[in-house]
Design brief:
about 475 residues, elongated, alpha/beta, nine-stranded mixed β-sheet
């Protein structure tokens, strides 16, 4: 029986290797045809439209992530690259703290890349990276001349930095068995749970920021209404004084003019044609793998993979890439169903739209397949693959730069830009967020998974994953 058990395990290992490498070979053939027929996408170099826009790329020590940072910097983004702590290009003192306020270095500007340490295997490292990014995004600039600064009369203004992209590129592939401090195997920790934990932190940050901005807008609206009401009261007092003084004719003329002024001021139809709202779009991008199409999801195996005797490097990579893809889809389903935007409308007694404001933050979750790329991700593969890759990789695989362009070309599309031209009407229903999008070869496609997963199924998976990281 022991011999039969060992034989079955060996057969399973062989089948898992065949699945991975066969999928890789078929993927190479498919992407070669795509690149020859359609060509590789080209990115524009318009830096002006992305000034003060922040792109966070996790897994940027080398390969696709590093090329993404360089491309985004050429696009004019302010890029924050999350690299491994042992990477010599990373630094821990890019954001200093003085007097309780974050001081952003001069290197953080349009077209620049700063590298911060992050290790998804360590929960504390993820938190430190997140806090550093928040310090940059919350940075307060001061306006005023030199004399005012000496008198400490600076007036704080909102941070010019706007979070636009969060790209989860970090991954491990077919590595040796290793348990992280959280108790999870390294594939599960890096490819799924660490990335999900960082996404959840940024989601909470965006929600809190949106609520703060909404309160500020409400306070500004109250001040405007009080000023308008004060103006109405002053005009009434003036008319009463004129009437008491016997200037009825002049008062009547003033009444007609003032009434028309107040009607213009309070009638929303005077402003609704010119009123526009800004829809803030923050894109959460997950870099997927074609191996997610090899087999169906097995949470039982992922739980058992914490035991070395049950661990398979090939199957762990397949399962975690599939689970990461489904988690990304579940996040989009949750925030699309719960409503990404908060639009409020006030009505008067005649059901006429008086005022409408939009404190919208649209969180769009997408997944991008870069194809078969010639990177160091395959360093744990067997010797036969390593030799084959060294001889033919530059001919048949995409380079990291080509893969970065394939992933970024759909993300930089106008569909994910802030909608500055969305015309407001009196409808209380906000625009419907777009569904989960999967990009393959730089174009919108469909993942050919071996099993169909319903929306209810993936949402239950997300709740399970959130339960596993709740104590983090």
């Amino acid at each position: 029986q022991q011999q039969q058990q060992k034989q079955r395990e060996q057969n399973n290992i062989v089948m898992e290797c065949v699945k991975v490498y066969w999928k890789g070979v078929s993927g190479v053939v498919e992407q070669l045809l795509q690149d020859v027929v359609h060509g590789l996408p080209q990115l524009s170099r318009d830096k002006s439209s992305h000034r003060f826009e922040v792109a966070v790329v996790v897994g940027a020590s080398e390969g696709i992530g590093k090329s993404m940072c360089d491309e985004l910097a050429q696009q004019g983004f302010c890029v924050i690259a999350g690299c491994l702590p042992h990477d010599p290009t990373t630094t821990n003192d890019k954001v200093e703290h003085g007097g309780g306020k974050a001081i952003v270095p001069s290197s953080l500007c349009s077209g620049k890349v700063i590298r911060l340490p992050i290790d998804l295997r360590v929960v504390a490292s993820v938190r430190r990276f997140f806090k550093t990014v928040c310090a940059i995004l919350k940075h307060q600039q001061h306006k005023g001349n030199h004399h005012e600064k000496q008198q400490h009369q600076q007036q704080p203004q909102k941070s010019p930095f706007k979070l636009r992209y969060i790209i989860q590129n970090a991954a491990v592939m077919m590595c040796d068995f290793n348990l992280c401090e959280s108790g999870w195997e390294e594939h599960m920790q890096v490819n799924v749970l660490g990335s999900l934990f960082l996404n959840k932190l940024f989601i909470d940050f965006l929600n809190a920021t949106n609520n703060t901005e909404e309160l500020e807008k409400q306070q500004e609206q109250r001040k405007e209404e009080e000023q308008q009401q004060e103006g109405v009261d002053n005009d009434r007092m003036k008319r009463n004084f004129d009437e008491n003084s016997g200037k009825e004719k002049t008062a009547n003329n003033n009444n007609s003019n003032d009434d028309s002024t107040h009607a213009c001021r309070l009638n929303p139809k005077c402003d609704v044609d010119n009123d526009q709202s800004t829809r803030k779009v923050v894109v959460f991008a997950h870099i997927s793998s074609i191996t997610q199409e090899c087999e169906a999801l097995s949470l039982k195996y992922l739980l058992q993979s914490t035991n070395k005797h049950n661990y398979s490097p090939h199957r762990s990579y397949i399962q975690t890439k599939l689970l990461g893809f489904l988690a990304q889809r579940a996040l989009q389903l949750r925030y699309a169903n719960s409503g990404n935007q908060t639009t409020t409308t006030n009505y008067n007694s005649n059901s006429t739209c008086l005022k409408k404001k939009n404190g919208a933050v649209v969180k769009q979750f997408v997944s991008c397949d870069p194809g078969i790329v010639n990177t160091n991700l395959y360093r744990h593969a067997n010797a036969v693959f390593q030799i084959t890759k060294a001889l033919t990789g530059s001919l048949f695989m995409r380079s990291p730069l080509q893969a970065a362009q394939v992933c970024l070309s759909p993300l930089l599309n106008e569909r994910f830009h802030d909608d500055h031209h969305y015309q407001l009407d009196c409808s209380p229903t906000p625009p419907t967020p777009s569904p989960f999008v999967y990009f393959q070869h730089g174009k919108e496609g469909t993942a050919n998974l071996t099993t169909t997963y319903t929306d209810e199924h993936v949402l239950m998976l997300l709740e399970t994953l959130e339960g596993w990281i709740r104590d983090w």
